Amino acid sequence: MSAYDVAAETPVRSIGNHFSRKGFGNNTVIDCPPLPMPAERTVDEHVAAIYQDGFTVIKNAIPRDQVPHVKEIMASFKNHRDGDGYSSWGYGKDGERREDIKFIQRSGGGPCGHPDLLPYTNIPIVMDILNIVLAHHFHIVGGTCWLTGPGRHPMGLHSDWMAVSLPEDVIADPRVVVPVYECFAHFYLNDMTPDMGPTVVVPGSHRSGRIPQNETSWNGNDAGCFCCEAGDMILFNNAIWHGAMPNISDEVRYLYQIQYANKRIGTVHGQALAVKDEVIAQANDEQKRLLGVVRNEGGYY
Ligand SMILES: O=C(O)CCC(=O)C(=O)O
Ligand SMILES: [Fe+2]
Asked: Are strands 221-222 and 217-218 parallel, antiparallel or unpaired?
């Protein structure tokens, strides 16, 4: 039995296992309706949506005229894993596993990898929202650029980090407000259509207090997908149940992710981010602080 199987069999609310509370993606959604794209929101409305629905949408987070340049940078990053950046199997348009389809699946780089990505680390409205949601002094704990090509199979519903698991009747009590521990910013660089493998979320599922167990809806809310325009971003609570539909189009999907957390939470890999020298050279003070490349002079430590 692999470590994965052992972990998958661990009871959902076991005491002392909160820090490995990542869902296992064992249930997939291959088709679901696009979620409505909200009209422009104020900072308070964005914050309320993150608590209530688990996500909010920032339109034009990357200006449309910058989208081709960002895609070019993303395509220039090396794969973070060994190998040629192609999957070992794929997903046919007929919905079947196909050994002859190898889709491009590359992830690497991110906010530390190129100075021209710096402006997207501290977008003013996102800073205002996160200052409330993650509390003052949050930082970047990870980030990746994903290219997922035609044949990318569906990604199962999972929770990136359900930091606090609670019994349903406890978490349903309106006096219980679980803090937001981490937020993912997902920037989409394509005009997303359902066949391109959009990200899927189950609205409100961050309030389930548990990772998904072979289910694709929670509390009456069914999964929906994000079909936004190139340059748009979703900002979501990492505890939300999410995944992706298969890419059955002929286009490569470009997804740029930045992960933010309260300053008292470490990076995803437990090490300082590998920020390139040319990125540090061009970063302003706020960007350096977010990327963890400045020392806290004169503080307690
Ligand atoms: O590919 C997607 O849309 C989702 C990616 C994701 O959930 C992850 O990287 O954890
Ligand atoms: Fe995820």
From this structure: antiparallel
Domain ranges within the chain, ordered by starting residue: 37-291
Stated pTM of the model: 0.89
Q: What is the pLDDT of residues 40-86, one digit of tens each?
A: 999 999 999 999 999 999 999 999 999 999 999 998 887 655 566 67
Distance from Cα 259 to the centre of ligand 2, integer Å: 11
For residue 188, what are its two tokens?
């989409």
Residue 138: how many other CB atoms lie within 10 Å? 22
**Ligand 1 close to Cβ of residue 199 (< 6 A):** yes
Ligand 1 pocket, residue 242 CB under 6 Å: yes
d(CA 126, CA 133): 10
C-beta atoms surrounding 225 within 10 Å = 24
Decide: 114 in ligand 1 pocket, CB within 6 A. Answer: no
Cross-strand partners of 146 = 107, 255
Q: From CA 161, how far away is CA 184, in angstroms rounded?
A: 11
How far apart are the C-alpha atoms of 194 and 71, rounded to whole Å? Answer: 20
The angle subtended at Cα 117 by Cα 115 and Cα 119, nearest 5°, is: 100
How do strand 155-158 and strand 224-225 relate by DSSP bridges? unpaired
The topology under which CATH files domain 37-291 is Jelly Rolls (2.60.120)
Q: Which of 30, 242, 269 has most ligand 1 atoms within 8 Å of its beta carbon, as the pocket-test mutant? A: 242
Residues ≥6 apart with Cβ < 8 Å to 206: 54, 159, 162, 178, 237, 239, 240, 241
